[in-house]
Amino acid sequence: MILPIVGYGDPVLRKEASEIPKDYPNLKQIISDMFETMYNANGVGLAAPQVGLSIRLFVIDTSPFEDDEDLSEEERNILSGFKKAFINAVITKEEGEEWCFNEGCLSIPDVREDVYRKEKITIEYYDENFVNHTEEYSGLIARVIQHEYDHIEGILFTDKISTLKKRLIKKRLENIMEGKVRADYKMKFIAKKGR
After folding, report:
1. Residue-wise burial string across 153-165, b where 16 or more C-beta atoms lie within 10 A, e elsewhere
2. Beta strands in 17-164 (DSSP E)
3. Where does this protein hold Fe cation (predicted)?
4. 148 carries an active-site annotation
5. Which residues contact 171 (CB under 8 A, 6 or more apart)?
6. Which amino acids are annotated as binding site for Fe cation, given as ranges?
7. pLDDT number for residue 190
8. Which of 76, 93, 146, 191 would you label with 171, given CA atoms 20 to 30 Å apart?
9. Distance (Å, rounded) from C-alpha 154 to C-alpha 15?
10. What top-level class would CATH report for the domain 5-188?
11. How far is Cα 67 from Cα 76, in angstroms, rounded to an integer?
């Protein structure tokens, strides 16, 4: 089932999400719905807070990057097969040089900005069968994981840009809060309160 994606300004996007117990109701269905919602919106990642659930869950499928001609064939091959659900994830290490990439977010349509992130991470998480993993990732996979991980920590990519850039996009963010934006997917907006 395709779920509405919560727009910028909704308080759920600013909460630190809760751990998920093994007996969480309908978890496999939620994961399936999140993948379907992400594909419908042409995304490569989606976190549970973005569909209104303040739980430590995100899904990723980086296969759309396999068509990116700016990447090497080896990078495209790695990205083409990467599809996972991450439950109760904790990034235990971020290392390497910071590098810049132009990021966007399904909760913040029509806003893209350059964001700097470390090139390599170590992450502990449970998969959809509650099997524990500790893995290292680098490059674009690490970046997508860091972006989605930020969501379960209540952080948005716009928090990582300069004060000047924040001022430049302020009106666009206000328009999203007020529902004055068009997206090619189902969204849920919070009406801006007061002035």
Report:
1. bbbbbbebbeeee
2. 45-47, 57-61, 83-105, 108-126, 132-138
3. 105, 147, 151
4. yes
5. none
6. 105, 147, 151
7. 84
8. 146
9. 5
10. alpha beta
11. 7
Percentage of the chain exceeding pLDDT 90: 87
Q: Read off the pLDDT of residues 143-152 as tens digits, 9 standing for 90 and up.
A: 999 999 999 9
Rounded distance between C-alpha atoms, residue 58 and residue 53, angstroms: 11
Binding site per annotation, positions: 105, 147, 151
Which amino acid is present at 138? S
pLDDT at 192 over 70: no
Residue 63 token pair: 């296969």
pTM of the model: 0.94
Residue 109 phi/psi, 5° resolution? Answer: -60, 145
pLDDT of 130 higher than 50: yes
Residue range 109-130: mean pLDDT, rounded: 97
How many CB atoms are located within 10 Å of the residue 67 CB? Answer: 10
